[in-house]
């Protein structure tokens, strides 16, 4: 439902910003703001034909905003879906006595046919490409004297290290929605290891039986394992607990190999899940795990008893609250196979790409470097085996090498590329919204003309009591960083519109984009904007700079300009 709206053109009209009221504004607050703007824009107050025409347009716009927000049903639709929601065909049959929740359900019903059409276009492709690299010759090369003996004194030690690709795996899957409750999933994979390879193909049919569960039937075939038949079931037992069961039969020349896996999961609290899993078949095991996922961290603890794998594992991941969504992680896993310690990091390098690197140090596995790139729904994985031994040099180069390489690529390639992409995106937004912005600019200029007389009276009243006088005000993109001198500032003068909003020596702006205020428009589409204001109160100069969506209330003592400055 939300996705359907995201693909539509986004509305620029913010009714709350136009009326300069909070999103939680009461009916009295809406009425007071509406009356004030009506007095300002009423067509009968202007004799000039052009001003009268402009006033009529603005008056109708204000009236439209008020009519939507004063009606609880229309306001509920607008708050959830914006102006687009009000234009959906079919609202005329909605009963006016319905609650906001019922109206939301009605909206979803009216969009259902559209969603079904979109289903036919969704395939949700997912893929993985894994390339295993053997680079042990970098650290585990034979001693020079041994090479001289075996090579007959030919000096073979001076050659380049031998690095080879010893395994590859490619898998791909697509989903084909048949109806709103039935989905077909086609997947396949190809693998090769040291010259031996194979592949398989699977077809699954999934049906959503109710809001509480779904079932899936799977058929598969391959050149290594033979035909496969499986059945999977998911069921919500309670609002905090669910279970899954998967049974399958693998047919081969050795006979039929059955398998069964069941899992029970429960929400222990808001951020914590507990899992119990039992597996019977070729690799029987019992597993229990606890997973805690918060905004800033992710923690996992698991214990497994099984044949042949029995282990205990603990991992922790810290999430930085930055634009790149950087994460650092570490884990330790110990069992009959030995002990493995892993540490690494991942970061977002573009809108749809995440790059990660993990160093694995274990006994008897040795040292490996794993590099993973997620690009949308595609995953590229490169495990690089460096050495079978625990060599400090291998651990050092596996840790420092990727970090230095990433910082160099980030500075020389990624940042310039992302900056160029952002500039192209902003330019596209400007081009696509050029006509709309021109219209908004024309409306803003007309509003400023209509405000002149009211502003003159407000200034006279404020001057008589040493009140609030807006001396200068600018809105838009300001360039203050010396490193960005090449960028051009995009600002507009909003002194008159802000003075017009002054009432009883106070100016109050709500938490909304200021581009929607009367007399304003967006001078820099897609860019970060601010409001800079110089004002006088009780004969003293004040100055303030605030963000586009920040609430503002003046005058304030903290805005006062000292005499020394």
Automatic annotation (TrEMBL):
Subcellular location: Mitochondrion outer membrane
Keywords recorded for this protein, A-Z: Acetylation, Chaperone, Coiled coil, Membrane, Mitochondrion, Mitochondrion outer membrane, Phosphoprotein
GO BP terms: cristae formation
Gene Ontology terms: cellular component: mitochondrial outer membrane
Boundaries of every J domain copy: 14-82
Alphabetical list of Pfam families matching this protein: DnaJ, DnaJ-like_C11_C, DNAJC11_beta-barrel
Domain of life, per lineage: Eukaryota
Membrane-related topology note: Peripheral membrane protein
Primary location: mitochondrion
Recorded family membership: Belongs to the DNAJC11 family.
Function: Required for mitochondrial inner membrane organization. Seems to function through its association with the MICOS complex and the mitochondrial outer membrane sorting assembly machinery (SAM) complex.
Descriptive protein name: DnaJ homolog subfamily C member 11
Gene behind this protein: LOC107586512
